[in-house]
Amino acid sequence: xxxxxxxxxxxxxxxxxxxxxxxxxxxxxxxxxxxxxxxxxxxxxxxxxxxxxxxxxxxxxxxxxxxxxxxxxxxxxxxxxxxxxxxxxxxxxxxxxxxxxxxxxxxxxxxxxxxxxxxxxxxxxxxxxxxxxxxxxxxxxxxxxxxxxxxxxxxxxxxxxxxxxxxxxxxxxxxxxxxxxxxxxxxxxxxxxxx
Length: 195
Description:
It is built from eight helices and five strands. By secondary structure, the protein is an alpha/beta fold. The chain has a single domain (3-194), classed as SGNH hydrolase (Rossmann fold). A five-stranded parallel beta sheet has the order 2-1-3-4-5, with helices on both faces. β3 (63-67), α4 (81-96) and β4 (104-107) form a beta-alpha-beta unit. It is globular and about 45 Å long. Residues 6-177 form the SGNH hydrolase-type esterase domain. It comes from Streptococcus henryi.
């Protein structure tokens, strides 16, 4: 039995035609007994998530997955890289008051289809991912690079970024399955250590 707390923006919150957030469905397909508390809020950036964590008492969970950054790097409402870095450090410090480092996983913003995305570029995705990877390394948390995940998937970017909105950012079933697999790999890697 596992429990997972999901924090982030619309990429965790979107239903994409399902009866609950699509990531919940994809995770339950791989871990049928998982208990999921999905607190993601569409449109949130790292400032918003930090405010939530400062106000709320979080539920006990085996795992916390943090998927924030797609709105931080959007050029029409950009959170500058240095601010994003400071926010992430504060977020992880707050989480570590309740959860062990090995139970926390940061997920990078996904690559985008620039032909459909006016406000996001893969150059910025790479820059914000570097910051996320550095914070993860400094604080001893797990890290999932969606850049690596997309590159190793064997699928073209156009297919990986296609969802109901078809805006080059909000993805659909294919990518939720890939993301859930990466999340389960992280969970299983910790379980193997404890045997």
